[in-house]
Amino acid sequence: MRLEDLTVIKPAPTPGDTSWFTHDRFGMFIHWGLYALGARHEWLKNYERIPTEIYDEKYFRHFDPDLYDPALWADAAKDAGMKYFIITTKHHEGFCLWDSAYTDYKATNTPYGKDILTPMVEAFRSRGLRTGFYHSLLDWHHPDYTVDHCHPMRDNEEYIAGDKDRVLSRYVEYLHNQTEELLTRYDPVDIIWFDFSVGPGGRFAGKGKEVWRSEELIEKIRKINPKIMIDDRLQIDQDVKTPEQYMPDGWYKVNGVPVVWEGCHTFSGSWGYYRDEQSWKSVDQLLKMLIDSVSMGGNLLLNVGPTGRGEFDERAYDRLRGIGKWMKRHSRSIYGCTQAPLEFECPRDCRYTYNPDTKRLYLHMYSWPFGKIRLTGEVAEHVEYIQILSDASEMRFSYNPENKTVDIPLPIYKPLGADIPVLEIYLK
Ligand code: FHN
Predict the structure, then answer these.
(1) Which terminus of the chain has a lower count of CB atoms within 10 Å, N or C?
(2) Looking at the predicted structure, is the pLDDT value of residue 263 above 70?
(3) pTM > 0.90
(4) CA 195 – ligand 1 centroid, Å
(5) CATH code for position 234
């Protein structure tokens, strides 16, 4: 087969502009709010059934991140090779990071007394990263947000009885107003990432696209910025599917059609800062999550939960630096890459990514076989030249036309400076 006749998957077209997104592949998620002071998961208010008065008495009144410096955050993201960031403008607790005209429950009214969001957007944009806003559909603070099976007060009969005076449509108007406020004030925002629609549970109704008036909200958003990307959690698929905390086993599909997708993951077991949580992924695991995602045509959104003082903790910085060390020499196998042609068989314990523009194939070697590695099938006919990506050192190979294989002799030890070695294969 000719190279141009090979099958390279392209995702279904999207209403928003996803061209930069499917090129850049790698972003930083940031979960930051009052829950950072509790330091035991962003669902703290839910898990411990904490009434708002007590939650605010403790966390709103003591929120003063004196070490907050978004330039350090933006540098860490850029140095790790991340090309966009998505910040929780408001998480389920309802606390707003920006100086919203629609609420007093915001950073400017805490002891910190300043807008958090504007300097963050400026810091990341000034380093060339695209801007994404995560915005919670749930709101455990707003007086008109009714109880559902995810609400912190779901076991409190007295609080539940108060639902009769709560007007959910008033909260939804607030949701629409704040969305327009954010997208207008910080225009052009590249992604709006809503989270999440609640199914019915126990005695409580759910909250989905009808409740949010999702269709109307999407229209309003697209009027402000027609190119913006919108996620799928308004219950109306738009620009990107968002599998969370698991790796799909292939290109994410909707009704059998490959779509733009992004897996979102934590370093540890929590999105928000969790001081005592010890299940932190290694750099090797995190790099393999990035490579796996791109090998299946997807993106990776990796989350940091800053502390109550406004810093990334050292465990996060260690991993970001480790990822950045690999990306410094290997980002060519990530940016602009996608799933390899379907006709190419990938050797055991390896992953292919492919740049359809440069016609270069990248073989990521999760283990270093003894003596040689063999490429079999269709790919073998197209190999023109091979080098180790990290140092551009030639890898000689032999092609056997009989059995259509390419053998690449390997040195005993894998190359220095490449925890996950990559062969850059020029195709003809
Ligand atoms: O409940 C949230 C959770 O706190 C976190 O924000 C994740 C990130 O995508 N989304 C929801 C759980 O699916």
Answers:
(1) C
(2) yes
(3) yes
(4) 7
(5) 3.20.20.80
